[in-house]
Design goal:
Blueprint: E1 2-7, E2 12-18, H1 25-36, E3 45-50, E4 53-59, E5 64-65, H2 66-72, H3 77-93, E6 112-113, E7 120-121, H4 132-143, H5 152-166, H6 172-181, H7 205-213, H8 215-218, H9 224-229, H10 235-242, E8 269-272, E9 275-278, E10 281-284, E11 293-294, E12 299-303, E13 311-312, E14 323-328, E15 331-336, E16 343-345, E17 348-349, E18 355-358, E19 363-366, E20 369-373
Parallel strand pairs: 12-13
Antiparallel strand pairs: 1-2, 2-4, 3-4, 5-6, 6-7, 8-9, 10-11, 10-20, 12-14, 14-15, 15-18, 16-17, 16-19, 19-20
């Protein structure tokens, strides 16, 4: 399976390519179901055959992948619980449409959210066949490094679910249901621990001493069974190692068919020790009242009406998470974040996740707002 992103003036698409595989019976049935009606929680898609390869075109206009969303947002208890509850609802809904859970693409790159983060949609790919428990475990391995480890409830939920996925014959979906209905040890709204039918107790001095001795281990929020297997001091490094991905071979390219004077910048370089690093700038050249920006750091988020954006563009056509400029050594790159009205580099509309180098004098346009990069 290969994945590409294509865009025209109206819509943005994620294209899943299955080399040399015809559409099977499950695929034909799923395609008819999705053409007839919109299934809540699933992206709409159509199929096309290209040179013997089956391609699935998912319309993702205005959406962001979960992996991109977590670049700028914390995976806290609220978002984590919402994601799992939507997945559980979809898992229970699919059989009504004669669809199977083993065809869901449970990867952070193929799960999408809207601009508010409240709507979550998943991809159904009938030629993909993976045990749902294994898919959920792989998703958890991707999400554990992204958890806000200051949020104890998020840590407890994430590690608890990951442990359940590894238990043989464990009812994973029932565990998710319990966590999201408040039947487990975490209250859904407040996130506080609660107990019923238990008398209120006061700690004795010797009990306080024991609690104090174990504070550092329990403060991580990781389940006790995990603590027995893994020291807290190495937990974070272990989690980070789970997120590493193997390099993939580049996919074949599929085509989609349905001069101003240089300005001298003040203080063009900053110094770090004995090495000088070029500092990029975006100079506003539009007709509105937007500001120019100095590109600080290795990742610079551009967006409108978003307090978390490094550079805020107030024009109405600019998406909350519109584009990202990154720096690798002394080279800058521009990447569209599936904005609604597009990002343009020297007049060329960029596809989602199309990472292009930016050089001095290049013209960038975010929706209708023009900038020059220096």
């Amino acid at each position: 399976m290969n994945i590409q992103y294509q865009r025209n003036l109206k819509n943005s698409y994620m294209v899943v390519i299955e080399p040399g595989q015809p559409l099977n019976m499950d695929g034909q049935l799923a395609e008819k179901m999705i053409q007839r009606q919109r299934i809540p929680g699933l992206l709409h898609w159509v199929t096309m055959e290209h040179e013997g390869d089956m391609t699935f075109w998912y319309q993702i206009t205005g959406l962001q992948s979960l992996s991109d969303w977590l670049t700028h947002h914390a995976l806290d208890y609220k978002l984590f619980g919402h994601l799992l509850s939507e997945l559980l609802a979809l898992q229970e809904e699919l059989p009504r449409f004669y669809l199977k859970t083993q065809h869901l693409l449970l990867q952070s790159e193929q799960i999408f959210l809207d601009a508010s983060g409240e709507q979550v949609v998943f991809c159904y790919e009938p030629l993909w066949n993976r045990d749902p428990r294994r898919s959920l475990q792989e998703l958890m391995e991707q999400l554990l490094p992204k958890i806000d480890h200051a949020d104890k409830d998020a840590v407890r939920l994430g590690y608890g679910l990951y442990e359940k996925c590894q238990e043989e014959n464990a009812d994973v979906w029932n565990y998710v249901l319990e966590q999201n209905t408040g039947n487990a040890c975490i209250h859904q709204e407040t996130g506080e621990e609660f107990a019923t039918d238990r008398p209120e107790q006061t700690d004795q001095p010797e009990q306080k001493a024991v609690k104090k001795e174990n504070t550092q281990r329990k403060s991580s929020g990781i389940p006790e069974k995990m603590l027995e297997k893994l020291p807290v001091t190495s937990a974070l490094s272990w989690v980070q190692s789970l997120g590493k991905k193997k390099k993939e071979k580049p996919a074949p390219v599929y085509l989609f068919e349905p001069e101003e004077k240089e300005e001298v910048c003040e203080n063009p370089t900053v110094y770090l020790g004995a090495k000088e690093i070029a500092e990029g700038r975006l100079l506003y050249r539009g007709a509105g009242e937007e500001s120019s920006f100095v590109i600080e750091g290795d990742s610079f988020l551009l967006g409108g009406r978003n307090e978390q954006a490094d550079g805020q563009i107030q024009a109405s056509g600019v998406s909350r998470n519109h584009a990202r400029i990154t720096r690798e050594e002394d080279q800058y790159y521009i990447e569209d974040l599936n904005s609604k009205n597009g990002t343009y580099l020297n007049g060329e509309l960029l596809a989602y996740k199309q990472k292009c180098p930016v050089n001095p004098g290049d013209h960038l346009r975010f929706a209708r707002e023009e900038y020059v990069f220096f």
